Automatic annotation (TrEMBL):
SUPFAM superfamilies: Ribulose-phoshate binding barrel. Pathway: Amino-acid biosynthesis; L-tryptophan biosynthesis; L-tryptophan from chorismate: step 4/5. It catalyses: 1-(2-carboxyphenylamino)-1-deoxy-D-ribulose 5-phosphate + H(+) = (1S,2R)-1-C-(indol-3-yl)glycerol 3-phosphate + CO2 + H2O. This is Indole-3-glycerol phosphate synthase. Belongs to the TrpC family. It comes from Flavihumibacter fluminis. It comes from the Bacteria. Residues 4-251 form the Indole-3-glycerol phosphate synthase domain. One of its GO terms (molecular function) is indole-3-glycerol-phosphate synthase activity. The gene is trpC. Keywords: Amino-acid biosynthesis, Aromatic amino acid biosynthesis, Decarboxylase, Lyase, Tryptophan biosynthesis. Its EC number is 4.1.1.48.
């Protein structure tokens, strides 16, 4: 079994447990279930923002502990204030050290919040809505095209944006009318290998109107510029900020450099 298979098997068990602890009708009664959501597409296209989807990630199976001490509110509030277009929060506990509580702690920010998790069941979409997420991630590598379509349609009904994550050409069949925003993960979730070229290679194969997001392994302004030239609107960045003792400061410096580059 590769790591993705291991994660998905654990996730199936976890979801069954959560369903028995908190059935759907209870989730639907949560206060945040009925609040309005922010549109990821609108925030990514807003020229006053940077296109960066800044991530809060404490650990990962590929890197181990990335940051064991960062304060969720301090970091995400800085991301929002300093020009991120959206914030990604890992909610998987077992492999990424996150939680639903982490996402709930950030929900007063006026910016789209992406629930970063391995979604395989409609229950998790209701849950995402109930904890205050605006966006869900659907990873093609853990779904069939038909499952992707059904989950994306449900998300749309619930006013959630969808970021559909692809890694290679074989996954293009997952794209459908409910997935206008497509992320290309430069990291292969089965081997952890990171190849920045993946995004560039895939860009020309996506539908022309897709909103494109490059994901993982981005640690330089030059890479963002290269991606922009190739039609990308969004850049999902985690480790580059989280590996710093002070991720808020690391984000601030990165943004300063990005802005001075644009002017120069
Ligand atoms: O920390 P990085 O290399 O900047 O990557 C961020 C993000 O793309 C990565 O965390 C990610 C992309 N897709 C995922 C799916 C599940 C968990 C994590 C991810």
């Amino acid at each position: 079994m590769n790591i993705l298979d291991t994660i998905v098997a654990a996730k199936r068990k976890e979801v069954e447990e959560r369903k028995s602890r908190q059935p759907l009708d209870l989730l639907e009664r949560k206060e945040h279930f009925h609040r309005t959501t922010f549109s990821l597409a609108e925030f990514l296209k807003d020229p006053s923002k940077t296109g960066i989807i800044a991530e809060f990630k404490r650990k990962s199976p590929s890197k181990g502990i990335i940051n064991g001490t960062a304060d969720l509110w301090e970091v995400t509030a800085a991301y929002a204030r300093l020009g991120a277009s959206a914030i990604s929060i890992l909610t998987d506990e077992e492999f990424f050290g996150g939680s639903s509580q982490d996402l709930m702690d950030a929900r007063s920010l006026n910016i789209p919040l992406l629930r970063k998790d391995f979604i395989i069941d409609p229950y998790q979409i209701y849950e995402a809505r109930a904890i205050g997420a605006d966006v869900i991630l659907l990873i093609a590598a853990c779904l069939t095209p038909e499952e992707t379509r059904k989950l994306a349609m449900l998300a749309a009904e619930m006013q959630l944006s969808v970021l559909l994550e692809l890694h290679d050409e074989e996954e293009l069949g997952h794209v459908n009318e409910f997935t206008p925003i497509i992320g290309i993960n430069n990291r292969n979730l089965k081997t952890f290998e990171v190849n920045i070229e993946k995004s560039l290679e895939m860009a020309s194969k996506l539908p022309p109107h897709a909103i494109k997001v490059a994901e993982s392994g981005i640690d330089k302004i030059a890479t963002i510029q290269l991606f922009r030239e190739n039609g990308f609107d969004g850049f999902l960045i985690g480790e580059q900020f989280m590996k710093a003792a002070d991720p808020a400061k690391a984000f601030e410096l990165f943004i300063q450099e990005l802005k001075s580059n644009k002017l120069g």
